[in-house]
Amino acid sequence: MRNGRRLAMLLSALLACSCGRAEQVVGRADVIDGDGLQLGELTVRLFGIDAPEGQQSCRREGRAWACGEASARKLRELVNGRVVTCEPRDVDSYGRIVAVCRTGGIDVNAALVESGLALAYRRFSDDYVPAEETARRRRAGMWAGEFEPPWEWRQRRQDQAGNPAAGQRGAACDIKGNISRNGNRIYHVPGSPSYQTTVVDSGRGERWFCSEREARDAGWRAPRR
Hints:
This protein is an alpha+beta fold. It has helices at about 1-15, 65-80, 110-115, 130-140, 150-160, 210-215; strands at about 25-30, 30-35, 35-40, 40-45, 50, 60, 65, 85-90, 95-105, 105, 120, 175-180, 185-190, 205-210.
């Protein structure tokens, strides 16, 4: 983790200075979710897009389908087994790099939006609005049916939870934040292999989360695959 913090601090300093853009981050990536990658010690959040959460479902032809899982699967298709080059645009308050990532000449961020499995995150950038319009015209992915924008889905989950105190279990706060013996912070969603056997011990700093994004923002990660 020290190397990760050091690199994040370096990137933050480069981004803050007037000397130009931060250096590229290059390597093979593991997929965290539909808009998150892990490159070694570094966590990368894809810039300008927002993908459905892992637990999120959409509707198509009157049936629910796991659009969150589909988004992560699409990202895996794009990056698995390939060298990924990420150009940092920012470092967020949690030390994650926010970047545009490419592989084989493909803008991964744009490809996800064009597939209809992520949306342009207009709150932060309009760069991928054209890609979103393309997906909408083609009725690709989520655009083939009905869906809730990821940011609205997360807010609704928090509202349903009744704004419980941080780390407490609410009506919709069913994600378990566990701390392993070696200090790794790992979250488990309902239905995952370790969910039933994981016990949340608030005395050890463990807690409940209302969404995977909330867990990641707090410094927890999904189990390694």
